[in-house]
Amino acid sequence: MHFYRKNTVKNGSIIIYTLIACSICFSCAIYCFKIELQKYENNNRMLSIRLSNTQYEECREFLLTYVYNYLNENIELKNSENLNNFIANIPDGYTISYKNSYVKYNLSKTCFVINSYVDDYIHREDYYNVYILDSSIRFKFQDTKYVEGRI
């Protein structure tokens, strides 16, 4: 009988192994939860960045839409010759403005220029070519310049 008692496990040692195993499982579960929470927060942050609408984008979209509608209403036959003739007849200094931005046609570079503020003393100039494709007016982004000074 005494020999049997020597090989048995003492009371409380099973609880220690159980607690160690449970703590390992619990820490793995918390780590997985933390990773999922970080993925969720990152996705929400990226979504809010993608859906944010800056003032520059709003002004650019409004001005290009206005120019598109203006050209679309005033050019009857949509071909490049009529487009070039109509643009050549636009008076010098004719601008369309919206908030802190405006668009004008640059005769020397034959493109539309959108001027908008980036900062108090820096403004951005975006150059867009206009052409006709399948009797539809299209704008093609050409270049961006950042210029120091006020508009």
Structure write-up:
The chain has 151 residues and is α+β, with helices and mostly antiparallel strands. The protein has two domains: 13-51; 56-148. The chain contains four helices and five strands; from the N terminus they run H-H-H-H-E-E-E-E-E. The protein has helices at 2-7, 13-51, 55-74, 80-88; strands spanning 95-98, 101-106, 111-117, 122-132, 137-148. The chain has a five-stranded antiparallel β-sheet. Strand 2 and strand 3 form a beta hairpin. The longest helix has 39 residues, at 13-51. The protein is rod-shaped, with a radius of gyration of 34 Å. The mean pLDDT is 84.
Low-pLDDT stretches are none
Classify the oligomer.
Answer: single chain
H-E string:
HHHHEEEEE
Mean pLDDT across residues: 84
- Total count of helical runs of at least 4 residues: 4
Q: What characterizes the major β-sheet?
A: 5 strands, antiparallel
Q: Percent of residues in helical segments?
A: 40-55%
Characterize the overall form.
rod-shaped
Which structural class do the helices and strands define?
Answer: alpha+beta
Gyration radius, to the nearest Å? 34 Å
Q: Distance between the terminal alpha carbons, to the nearest Å?
A: 101 Å
Number of self-contained structural domains = 2
The proportion of strand residues reads 25-35%
- Please tally the β strands and state the result: 5
Physical arrangement of strands within the biggest beta sheet = 1-2-3-4-5
